[in-house]
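User: protein adenylyltransferase, Oceanobacillus locisalsi:
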Amino acid sequence: MAILPNKLGITSQTELNRIEEKVSKQKAKHLFDSGDMNFIEIGTFKGLSEVHRYLFEDIYELAGMMRDVNIAKKDFLFAPIMYLKDSLDYIDKMPQHSFDEIIEKYVEMNVAHPFRDGNGRSARIWLDFMLKSEIRSVIDWNVVDKKDYLPAMERSPVQDIEIKQILKTALTPKTNDRDRFMNGIDASFYYEGYFAYKIKEL
Ligand SMILES: Nc1ncnc2c1ncn2[C@@H]1O[C@H](COP(=O)(O)OP(=O)(O)O)[C@@H](O)[C@H]1O
Ligand SMILES: [Mg+2]
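Assistant: Predicted structure for protein adenylyltransferase:
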């Protein structure tokens, strides 16, 4: 895969991965510490794109913007761009009152995969904001094992029972706990192969 065009003029994928991790983790930390997270719209594509832009705007021109290419992972084709806008409008209207409804919405957003990259990391933050606001709980991502999480997400478009179970077990009422948030960001980035920096040391 070709390296994504970036604002920093970086042409080495290894270097880009490191800088992206460093900068976006610093931004994630600031999202919490500044209180900016309280202004993110809950449960909509607009809110998700606010999170995505917040994390990645210093690196990618396309931060927060809907992709204009089709993408697949393993054998799974995410929403074809032809249907992406309709799919996002539909997801905006999905209910988000219970844990099950919220996870179903999260699974649909993963199927939509609105951005060229950074969907996983931004959607997990978006998911936590929904859970916090609607059911006064969040996921403790530190207790969610990558080996369980990723296969469950891969199967989720067909069968969401597994991901619901994994995430339900990891629910915590510590919605405003800074350690939980920061360690959760490190875990979330680890799922996607980014583990060169610890957020608290940035
Ligand atoms: N084969 C698959 N089928 C469905 N979802 C997948 C598949 N592979 C990965 N995912 C989901 O996509 C996310 C990664 O998307 P990506 O845009 O690369 O995010 P990031 O850049 O934050 O890693 C994973 O966290 C997982 O939720
Ligand atoms: Mg990725």
